[in-house]
Recover the amino acids of this structure.
């Protein structure tokens, strides 16, 4: 079970969280998005091997969303960052 | 040592407290434990512990266990066990034992309390760390303890420190990310043979550790030769230990070895009074050190040493018990049969790599040690002792068994429990398989109760021999948790029976139960399904309940609907984004039905939302969708529109709701709330009023989910039952009738109202449901852009329609697929055009009816379809009161 660093509450067990797929996915303006741009937003997500910036919500805790770097091979967590803040550099 | 009486296969035995069942039976002279699963070969004990492939037993005393190894069962007074030929029986009585669970944090978790693990535990304890050390055996000390060595006192002293938690009989069954480990601690079976209802029989530990030390040790490996499975053939380490513990059945022994361990055990046997007839060593030459430490001491004791030879075959008594071993050296032509009652095998060590592989650490092949070992490069995990290869001084030869031709290999067992032989391996390789993953599935090797603890490395080595590759070129050993078989009850802990899942009940629940209503599970909620009168079945009760709702007055507990209190100056604008229709223009005090879509444009949830004040709203959701909707709202507010000032609070359980439904509901409301203007003009459809109802402060909403005149009375949940009782009391002269979820479904379906989750499965747009009227043209909302995607805007999607079976009593089973009418009675495969989402018998219509999703359905209205041998006509999905006249009473 992952030990996820909630930036508000501290590290907690995975069972307290819900996963929200990739972070920093731009919500296109529906009025001007082409079919391709829109379908990319709705359906297409990255699935990298290695570091991945993703969203989690601490559903059974503070109920707040945050972003965090996670290594999909080792499951190591990198820095977390709050929505609408600058993304920290990809860990190495 | 005190005596203990126990029963095995119906025979009473006496053993010594502290002995395993295997030890106790061997002491009693029992060699033949069981017959093998597939080939009825007589089998005896081969090993000391959890790697045992043969001696499976069923425990019938206490809580019972369907399949355990006799080597791991500690005998107690009254223990009843019986031998198993591979397949166990679950006890047919309920297990009344207690099970529980503990959660712990540790700086360091040490797995294994052999010398290596103990040294690590002491090291970290000395540093002041919080240490947990777990070991699966009854006693501390690992191999050293089994060999009767003295464990250094300072290591044992460290275990009693305040910062150290030390648990024996505790098996770590899984290791996971970030230092998470799960273990099961057996706490009562070794104390007595009774069901333990006061003390937890098994405690499941969940540990999160900053650092994990794996000191899991190693199991000894057997060798593969002809007839290598007879009772009397044991791993040398096990044989020596059993004899040291007082097993007197054996008089002579032959030790066949590939390493120095064989010498160590031969000397142990000799010292315990066994005549060691020979040590058969596959190695001709030894290093100086080994000669000095292993061979010389054996020679000094006068033990004959046969160099460069191995066991080729064995002979048995009429009962199949070992009587002699055939020794062979093909190079020198030596072939000799030695009569003996014990054959001790030392085939090298196999480190217990399981826990390391669970977390993705790959074992590496060490030729020098003839073993897969693990040296962790992960910072938070260290591997020590035999697991890390700390046994190179044994100098094993890479040897798994003599060369055998095909006729011999027939009874040369690789996996005893699966009765899989060298010949099976040859067949697998002959069929083109090399990868261990393929061979495993073809031969079933490693898939039995012992999960290949003795056969894994053997298999890889033997395949390697057959194809000329090293064992690590065949693949790597990958294991999955749990490390041992674990009773489900141990994992469930106290979450059994009523505690399996939280049960949510409304404030009126006790009344429903007393009225004899069977309950339906809706998510975690218990909702009354129907309220049968004496002698009524579901069908009769539902007909009566629906008749009351359509012609008189009926009452329902609607408290389970999800409720979210939404406040803030931007709440209206936010709801406009969340719902497909407009909410910001709604007048204070009015309610509106709304539909939500995902970004993909598919219907996600629905419900009625009420504007309680300028900046204050109360949203209702489906009963099962409340949590999901709450998460959805928060997600958009936090991650897309943080500039909106909106606050959401779940109030589902704070509000109790009683719906009164039917043409006489107005009359009932007037009785309940005498001062209230209940007239058609004074209390409009979708209007809300605050008033005392039977003396309880309430918000009354004129909302209908049946098409009839209806009101929902909302009160604080504390008053729910009181309100219900008043409704029943004052409504009695009007014939007020309680109804449950079944009638609710029939009533709404007659009216063509969808239920999200029943008519939808996440692939329906509002238009598919015929609800394009709810899609606002004036504003954007979540998912709107998806309606113009090519697939979503197809005119021939599956659309919601009605179905009227042509046999009017035939209720089509929900979920049925159906075809065009020309396929009536045809044998599949036939192309289907749709499926039934809801189907009931309607008292109002005096016939059956259904709702269905049909390909290009709206264009097919009037067409006939075939459901097996039955037929139905496609109609509009609305069956009662198409003109909406009933809702005003």
């Amino acid at each position: 079970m992952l030990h996820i660093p909630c930036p508000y509450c501290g590290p907690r067990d995975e069972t307290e969280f819900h996963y929200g797929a990739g972070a920093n996915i731009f919500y296109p303006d529906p009025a001007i998005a082409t079919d391709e741009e829109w379908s990319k937003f709705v359906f297409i997500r990255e699935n990298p091997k290695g570091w991945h910036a993703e969203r989690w919500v601490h559903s059974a805790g503070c109920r707040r969303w945050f972003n965090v770097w996670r290594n999909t091979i080792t499951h190591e967590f990198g820095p977390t960052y709050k929505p609408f803040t600058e993304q920290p550099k990809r860990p190495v | 040592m005190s005596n203990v009486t126990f029963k095995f296969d119906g025979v009473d035995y006496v053993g010594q407290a502290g002995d395993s069942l295997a030890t106790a039976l061997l002491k009693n002279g029992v060699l033949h434990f069981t017959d093998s699963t597939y080939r009825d070969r007589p089998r005896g004990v081969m090993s000391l512990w959890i790697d045992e492939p043969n001696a499976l037993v069923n425990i019938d005393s206490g809580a019972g266990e369907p399949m355990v190894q006799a080597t791991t069962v500690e005998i107690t007074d009254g223990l009843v066990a019986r031998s198993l030929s591979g397949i166990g029986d679950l006890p047919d009585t309920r297990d009344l034992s207690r099970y529980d669970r503990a959660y712990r944090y540790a700086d360091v978790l040490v797995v294994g309390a052999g010398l290596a693990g103990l040294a690590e535990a002491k090291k970290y304890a000395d540093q002041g760390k919080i240490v947990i050390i777990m070991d699966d055996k009854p006693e501390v000390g690992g191999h050293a303890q089994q060999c009767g060595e003295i464990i250094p006192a300072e290591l044992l002293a460290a275990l009693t420190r305040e910062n150290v938690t030390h648990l024996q009989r505790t098996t770590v069954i899984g290791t996971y990310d970030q230092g998470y480990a799960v273990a099961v601690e057996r706490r009562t079976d070794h104390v007595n043979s009774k069901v333990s209802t006061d003390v937890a029989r098994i405690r499941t530990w969940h540990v999160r550790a900053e650092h994990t030390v794996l000191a899991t040790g190693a199991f000894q490996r057997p060798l593969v030769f002809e007839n290598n499975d007879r009772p009397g053939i044991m791993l040398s380490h096990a044989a020596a230990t059993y004899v040291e513990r007082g097993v007197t059945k054996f008089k002579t022994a032959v030790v066949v070895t590939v390493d120095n361990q064989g010498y160590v055990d031969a000397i142990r046997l000799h010292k315990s009074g066994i005549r060691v007839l020979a040590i058969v060593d596959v190695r001709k030459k030894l290093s100086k050190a080994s000669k000095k430490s292993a061979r010389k001491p054996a020679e000094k004791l006068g033990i004959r040493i046969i160099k460069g030879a191995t066991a080729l075959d064995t002979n048995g008594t009429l009962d199949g018990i070992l009587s002699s071993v055939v020794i062979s050296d093909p190079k020198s032509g030596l072939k000799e049969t030695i009569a003996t009652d014990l054959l001790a095998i030392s085939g090298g060590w196999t480190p217990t790599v399981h826990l390391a592989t669970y977390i993705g650490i790959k074992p590496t092949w060490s030729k020098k040690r003839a073993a897969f070992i693990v040296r962790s490069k992960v910072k938070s995990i260290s591997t020590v002792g035999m697991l890390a290869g700390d046994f190179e001084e044994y100098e094993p030869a890479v040897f798994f068994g003599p060369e055998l031709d095909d006729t011999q290999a027939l009874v040369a067992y690789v996996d005893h429990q699966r009765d899989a032989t060298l010949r099976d391996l040859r067949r697998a390789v002959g069929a083109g398989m090399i990868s261990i993953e393929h061979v495993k599935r073809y031969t079933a090797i490693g898939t039995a109760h012992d999960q290949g603890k003795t056969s894994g490395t053997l298999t890889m080595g033997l395949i390697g021999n057959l194809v000329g590759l090293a064992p690590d070129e065949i693949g790597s050993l990958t294991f999955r948790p749990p490390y041992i078989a674990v009773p489900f009850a141990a994992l469930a802990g106290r979450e059994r029976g009523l505690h399996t899942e939280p049960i949510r009940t409304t404030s009126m629940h006790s009344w429903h139960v007393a009225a004899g209503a069977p309950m339906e599970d809706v998510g975690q909620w218990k909702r009354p399904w129907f309220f049968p009168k004496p002698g009524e079945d579901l069908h009769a009760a539902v007909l009566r309940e629906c008749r009351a709702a359509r012609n008189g007055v009926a009452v329902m507990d609607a408290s389970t609907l999800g409720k979210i209190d939404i406040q803030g100056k931007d709440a209206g604008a936010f709801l406009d984004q969340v719902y497909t229709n407009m909410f910001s223009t709604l007048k204070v005090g009015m309610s509106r039905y709304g539909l939500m879509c995902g970004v993909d444009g598919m219907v996600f949830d629905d419900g009625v939302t009420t504007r309680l004040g300028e900046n204050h709203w109360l949203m209702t959701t489906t009963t099962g969708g409340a949590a999901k909707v709450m998460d959805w709202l928060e997600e958009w507010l936090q991650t897309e529109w943080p500039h909106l000032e909106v606050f959401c609070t779940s109030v589902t359980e704070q509000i109790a709701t009683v719906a009164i439904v039917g043409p006489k509901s107005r009359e009932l409301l007037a009785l309940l709330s005498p001062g209230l203007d209940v007239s058609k003009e004074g209390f409009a459809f979708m209007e809300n009023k605050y008033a005392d109802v039977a003396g309880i402060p309430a918000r009354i909403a004129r909302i209908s989910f049946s098409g009839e005149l209806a009101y929902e009375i909302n009160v604080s949940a504390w008053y729910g039952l009181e309100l219900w009782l008043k409704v029943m009391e004052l409504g009695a002269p009007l014939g007020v009738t309680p109804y449950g979820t079944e009638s609710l479904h029939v009533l709404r379906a007659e009216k063509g109202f969808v239920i999200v989750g029943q008519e939808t499965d996440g692939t329906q747009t509002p238009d598919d449901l015929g609800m394009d009227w709810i899609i606002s043209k004036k504003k954007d909302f979540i998912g709107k852009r998806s309606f113009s995607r090519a697939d979503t805007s197809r005119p021939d999607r599956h659309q919601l329609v009605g179905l009227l079976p042509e046999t009017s009593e035939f209720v089509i089973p929900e979920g049925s697929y159906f075809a065009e009418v020309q396929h009536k009675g045809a044998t599949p495969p036939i192309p289907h055009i749709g499926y039934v989402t809801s189907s009931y018998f309607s008292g109002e219509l005096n016939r059956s009816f259904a709702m269905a999703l049909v390909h290009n359905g709206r264009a097919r209205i009037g067409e006939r379809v075939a459901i097996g041998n039955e037929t139905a006509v496609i109609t509009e999905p609305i069956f009662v009161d198409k003109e909406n006249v009933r809702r005003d009473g």
